[in-house]
Amino acid sequence: MVEAGEIGGAAVFALAAAAALSTASSLGAVDFRRPLAAVGGGGAFEWDGVVPWLIGVLGGGDEAAAGGVSVGVAAWYEVWVRVRGGVIAPTLQVAVWVCMVMSVMLVVEATFNSAVSLGVKAIGWRPEWRFKWEPLAGADEEKGRGEYPMVMVQIPMYNELEVYKLSIGAACELKWPKDKLIVQVLDDSTDPFIKNLVELECESWASKGVNIKYVTRSSRKGFKAGALKKGMECDYTKQCEYIAIFDADFQPEPNFLLRTAPFLMHNPNVALVQARWAFGKDFIPNFAVNDTTSLLTRVQKMFFDYHFKVEQEAGSATFAFFSFNGTAGVWRTTAINEAGGWKDRTTVEDMDLAVRASLNGWKFIYVGDIRVKSELPSTYGAYCRQQFRWACGGANLFRKIAMDVLVAKDISLLKKFYMLYSFFLVRRVVAPMVACVLYNIIVPLSVMIPELFIPIWGVAYIPMALLIITTIRNPRNLHIMPFWILFESVMTVLRMRAALTGLMELSGFNKWTVTKKIGSSVEDTQVPLLPKTRKRLRDRINLPEIGFSVFLIFCASYNLIFHGKTSYYFNLYLQGLAFLLLGFNFTGNFACCQ
């Protein structure tokens, strides 16, 4: 059955596509009738001057030598021109048009999400308009205590020395009747020292009357999904109606359950209530956070703000579907079990569970007003490992679950289209591919291949449209927008490699790497830090980024010296500089090669 939200979402998507096509046509930007062969007629003018100059340099002024060299150079140049014009340019031209189509798909998707997000903000839409929500009676009243369902809070962790106290303490201080709350610490730590500290912390809270369980495993099979699955197998879990999940660096406010649980209690068709991650004091006052630690964390915050404000908000308001963020959410136990429980077949077990639950007809609610404090990766390496895992896992899940979405019987055709096209194809495949191939490969190469034609609307209008769409929902971050653009240019290479790894199931597609936390808000001097190991130079720099910077700077210099039809050298120099800085792990905090 198609719901009003789904119909509205489809209508907004159609309007976004129509608006994009109408704008392109009115500007005369879209013209796919241009023949493949009719490209770059200005190449002769450019090279007729370059080749004689090159011959003269190689000849060194000796006429006989110059004659011999000129014949050799001219012969090789003729071969290059034929190969370039007959093989390389046509191949790249096909890639250009594929990228143009993918770019249009991307801008339509971004316009749709932003239009929904802005509409939600403009009318002041709240989840309570669509789903019933009523406050619970006081937890201290005998009458009110009977209304509270049994809730279990799961905290999976792995060698979390710097933050384990924060997450356990925040979970144990949640406002909920003590006889209705179970805190389950799933400790996969391999370090005996850290494992002992976590166990002592659990015993400390247990002595205060908190019903806290300390669970360990003999192996780390399945990683986080395996730990959560182990926790669900415990006997006391069967009495719990809802499961709240927090990663080790997340600290919910005491009223978190009081604000989220009523959505599940009053709406039997809702499986998940997702809160927003918060990194700054503008969201949660009096909290020490790391969103302003460096330029890297500022750019990350902008990325996550867009994800929650636009993508999660749009999915929730239209199709009541979005990806579970793996933490800061409350699940209905029945929905988890009906979906088949936690599976470790990908590195995005949270997204996997969300998709499977949605295929069973369950609905999700995103509540942006509820924010949970968390920590951003503080180093470039940690952020790259996190992004690779997410990008690779999402693409791999698309490969594994696409057919299940097609044959699902409990969701509408519109929702199937949204899940397959918008959620998976555009966001998990198209976005990383087109951004890397077009702007980091084709555009730089085009300065050396004058036969190649790249439409101006593909390299100017569409990027500008995406920039405006992103800026509208992030006005506070306008001053760091240039840095965000350059940073995302670097990250597209990693995300494309991750997406290809997941789609083709290449080596390492199911590799799980825990994101290292530093616990920037920890002021407990009694917790000793592990000694830092000394790294070799090659472990402190990123050779792929440095190699790419050399390629981009070379293309920029070539474009500057042999100025042809295009003038991309300014952008290419900036991109090359961004790759170079991140290659040396410079993240804007005056420290590099760490």
From TrEMBL:
Domain of life: Eukaryota
Topology class, membrane: Multi-pass membrane protein
Reactions it catalyzes: GDP-mannose + (glucomannan)n = GDP + (glucomannan)n+1
Gene3D superfamilies for this protein: Spore Coat Polysaccharide Biosynthesis Protein SpsA, Chain A
GO CC terms in record: Golgi membrane
One BP annotation, GO: cell wall organization
Membrane-traversing stretches: 87-108, 418-442, 454-472, 541-561, 573-592
Subcellular localization(s) per the UniProt record: Golgi apparatus membrane
InterPro entries noted in UniProt: Glyco_trans_2-like (IPR001173), Nucleotide-diphossugar_trans (IPR029044)
Ranges for domain Glycosyltransferase 2-like: 242-444
Keywords: Cell wall biogenesis/degradation, Glycosyltransferase, Golgi apparatus, Membrane, Transferase, Transmembrane, Transmembrane helix
Gene Ontology molecular functions: glucomannan 4-beta-mannosyltransferase activity; mannan synthase activity
Protein EC: 2.4.1.32
Annotated family: Belongs to the glycosyltransferase 2 family. Plant cellulose synthase-like A subfamily.
Main function: Probable mannan synthase which consists of a 4-beta-mannosyltransferase activity on mannan using GDP-mannose. The beta-1,4-mannan product is the backbone for galactomannan synthesis by galactomannan galactosyltransferase. Galactomannan is a noncellulosic polysaccharides of plant cell wall.
Official protein name in the record: glucomannan 4-beta-mannosyltransferase
